[in-house]
Amino acid sequence: MKFSAKHEGDFVYVDEGEGEVLLLLHGLFGALSNWERVIEGFSGNYRVVIPVMPIYEMPVKSAGLEGLVAFIEDFVAFKSLTDLTLLGNSLGGHVALIYTLQNKPNVKKLVLTGSSGLFENSMGGSFPKRGSYDYIRERVAHTFYDPATARGELVEEVFEITKSIPKCLRIVALAKSAQRHNMASEIPKIDVSTLLVWGLNDTITPPTVAHEFNRLLPSSELHFLDRCGHAPMMEHPEKFNRLLRWFLTAKEPAWK
Questions:
Q1: Phi then psi dihedrals of residue 174, to 5 deg
Q2: Cβ neighbours of residue 25 under 8 Å, at least 6 residues apart?
Q3: Cα-Cα-Cα-Cα dihedral sign, residues 110, 39, 136, 239
Q4: Structure letter (DSSP) for residue 145
């Protein structure tokens, strides 16, 4: 990754550029590098901030969405961030939704891609197979439409995580927390402008999930990317960035 992480207090994060704040939240097996092309595309005109969520360090008994949201609230307060545009992928989208509900005055816009919160089908719900590199490679490749997107270093990173029993226990606890916390009754209360960018070939949060988010979020617009899986910002970064740039600069939402 071209951008170095900063260590300050209890936080590890990327903070690049100046201007309006784009706060990016990664998923369960995500990392700072997942957002590299977004940093490249927007740090010239925006302040792009990505905290590393403590997915593998939280106490197992308290590993859940509530703890992650509290962590993001603490980070936002620590960095004095205001008027946020929140971007969340997968579990990060779920955290972004809850944060928005609890901190509406501080959220200007919302971007969800492959978000959990309604339904997801992932390996996080059961104990990941330890010691099987081929299994991990297959599951990481399953995230994308094009298996070649699952580069060797990405597979190695996930493989190293799943070799640790404590980390696996936290992964399972967080995934189950996300699966239990269905937000269908809460999502209609989120009235900030929302962009939904979804892979048409996402098998973890399928297109039906995107349509349901679009139906429940009163100020949302949905865009699908063809030949794309669960992480559009990684698999089709140019198209993702083009949609994001339009959303950030459009004077009127297309749905009005």
A1: -70, -40
A2: 50, 51, 53, 72, 86, 87, 88, 89, 92, 93, 95, 96
A3: positive
A4: S
pLDDT digits (tens), the chain, 256 positions: 578 899 999 999 999 999 999 999 998 877 788 899 999 999 999 999 999 999 888 887 778 899 999 999 999 999 999 999 999 999 999 999 999 999 999 999 999 999 999 987 654 444 455 557 776 777 777 788 887 887 777 777 777 777 777 787 888 888 888 888 899 999 999 999 999 999 999 999 999 999 999 999 999 999 999 999 999 999 999 999 999 999 999 865 554 4
188 and 215 in contact (C-beta within 8 Å)?
no
**Domains (range + CATH), the chain:** 6-121+181-249 (3.40.50.1820)
Token pair, residue 94, equals 């779920």
Spatial strand order in the sheet of 6-8: 6-8, 11-16, 47-51, 21-25, 84-89, 107-113, 193-199, 220-225
Q: Is the pTM of this model over 0.70?
A: yes
Round the CA-based radius of gyration of the chain to a whole number and report it.
Answer: 17
